[in-house]
Amino acid sequence: CHIIGYVRNSHGLQPGATGLEKHLEDILQGSTGIRTKTVNSYGKKIKSLETEPSIQGNSIHTTLDISLQLLAEKIFTHPHEGTFILMNPTDGAIKALVSLPNFDPSLFLTPIDTETWHALQNKKPFTNKALQCTY
Q: Which residues make Cβ contacts (< 8 Å) with residue 38, sequence separation at least 6?
């Protein structure tokens, strides 16, 4: 969750809230198109014209190695707190990164009740210890 991040729904848009979703939003987002529809008084579609095509966002590629990432997540687990970073010493490529405590980004797909929000705040899972802390 700290690497990829998550998106939030904001007036029909889904801007990135954290992680790569936030920092690379301009690259990932793309744009919606515009379609003009003509309907008669009965609501029957007479004509549809695409006046501006939608543009798909760009893809990105990371240096993460999924097998190393899964191994790091298996080794560095609760109750540990902190960060685990595996980096290629030759070129500085990040191969695995874990920050604990973490959270499930799907939590934000629906509104969160106050009790759940306060319980999350006590654990401080939203801080990416690899990128937001100094050790």
A: 45, 46, 47, 48, 49
Spell out a b/e string for 113-127, using b for 16 or more CB atoms within 10 Å of the CB, else e: eeeeeeeeeeeebbe
Residue 49 to residues 33, 36, 37, 45, 127, Cα–Cα distance (Å): 11, 5, 6, 11, 46
First to last CA, the chain: 21
82-103 residue pLDDT tens? 899 999 999 999 999 999 988 8
Q: Where are the alpha helices (DSSP H) in the chain?
A: 19-23, 25-29, 66-75, 114-123
The vertex-69 CA angle with 106 and 24, nearest 5°, equals: 60
CB–CB of 69/89 below 8 Å?
A: no
The pLDDT value given to residue 8:
65
Say which residues have a Cβ less than 8 Å from residue 81's Cβ, sequence separation at least 6: 100, 101, 129
β 34-39/82-87 pair status: unpaired
Residues lower than pLDDT 70 in the chain: 6-16, 135
